[in-house]
């Protein structure tokens, strides 16, 4: 899943108004942001296997640090705890932790049974990536609902709050669409470096969100 994770971050803004959208994106995408960091030095592994599912050409056969359920729970506690330590915003810390955990839940829906419950433990996944209509519908539904929730709660204070935000949304949406038709990457290394660019969405979202304001009182 790709846009669905960003949909969760967008929707979470209403639950934690004092948290930046950039921080919420960091949380919702956290384990995918960690994944290429572990891939590049060989701590985790993936194979490019066209046809393994109808939507994704990747065989995620070894990613226990970033994507096992046990470690995702650990990451959620760590990120939520660090956020509370720096911001002293209890609601935000809980939402950050839940956003991290939500990533595994959404991945469980689309992945084939390759998500370990704990390192070297049983693997699970409902396999929605084996259905083009199903997987795309779920992505669009979650992203669209999150975008609607964010727009229903915030408005641009100035032109940056409009242009920067919509440019980011366009990048995410059309970037996702392009991956659906681009075919497999030339190598795992190229794919990992490409995935590292997603870190740019965090400061970009912080910048855009700083130029927007809540339509109702902050909590």
**Number of domain units:** 1
Strands, count: 6
Supply the helix-strand structural class: mainly alpha
How confident is the prediction overall: mean pLDDT?
96
The Rg value, from CA coordinates, equals: 17 Å
Helix and strand topology:
Blueprint: H1 3-15, H2 21-28, H3 30-39, E1 45-48, E2 58-62, H4 64-67, H5 69-87, H6 90-110, E3 115-116, E4 123-124, H7 132-153, E5 154-156, H8 159-181, H9 188-196, H10 201-210, E6 212-214
Antiparallel strand pairs: 1-2, 3-4, 5-6
Descriptive report:
- The chain has one domain (3-214).
- The protein has ten helices and six strands.
- The longest helix has 23 residues, at 159-181.
- Helix content is 63%, strand content 9%.
- It is mainly α and 219 residues long.
- Helix 2 (21-28) packs across helix 6.
- It has helices spanning 3-15, 21-28, 30-39, 64-67, 69-87, 90-110, 132-153, 159-181, 188-196, 201-210; strands at residues 45-48, 58-62, 115-116, 123-124, 154-156, 212-214.
Question: Could you list some keywords that capture this structure?
Answer:
10 helices; single chain; 219 residues
Précis, in short:
This protein has 219 residues and is mainly α.
